C-alpha cells in the first residue's frame, strides 16, 4: 500500500509488526493505492502451477496490471455521498 505521507506508512508497518497473524489491522487513514498480487506463484509450486498462474495473470482483463503481475487499485481518500 502507498500513502500520501511516510508517517502513515510507518504507522502501518508498526501495526503489522504488532498484530498477531490472523487478526485484523484497522487503518487510521486510507491508502492512496493498494497493490494486489493475483494468481501468486509460491516457491512450493511446481512448474506447471507456476506456468498456469503466469498465464492467468497475462490474461487478466479487469484492472491495471504492471509488468510484474500486480494489479494497481487506486483508492479514494474521502467519499461524499449526496442524499
What does this entry show, briefly?
With 83 residues, the protein is an alpha+beta fold. Helices cover 31% and strands 14% of the residues.
Tell me roughly what share of residues is in helical segments.
25-40%
Q: What is the SS-derived class?
A: alpha+beta
Shape: flat
- As for the number of domains, it is 2
Order the strands across the largest sheet as they lie in space.
1-3-2
Main sheet properties = 3 strands, antiparallel
Count of helical regions: 2
Task: Tell me what portion of residues adopts beta-strand conformation.
Answer: 5-15%
Mean residue pLDDT? 80
The Cα radius of gyration reads 16 Å
Cα distance spanning the termini? 31 Å
| SSE pattern, N- to C-terminal | HEHEE
β-strand number = 3
Descriptive overview:
With 83 residues, the chain is an alpha+beta fold. The protein folds into two domains: 1-31, no CATH class; 33-77, no CATH class. 31% of the residues lie in helices and 14% in strands. It is built from two helices and three strands; from the N terminus they run H-E-H-E-E. A three-stranded antiparallel beta sheet has the order 1-3-2, with no helix packed on it. Strand 2 and strand 3 form a beta hairpin. The protein starts with 5 loop residues before the first helix and ends in a 9-residue tail after the last strand.
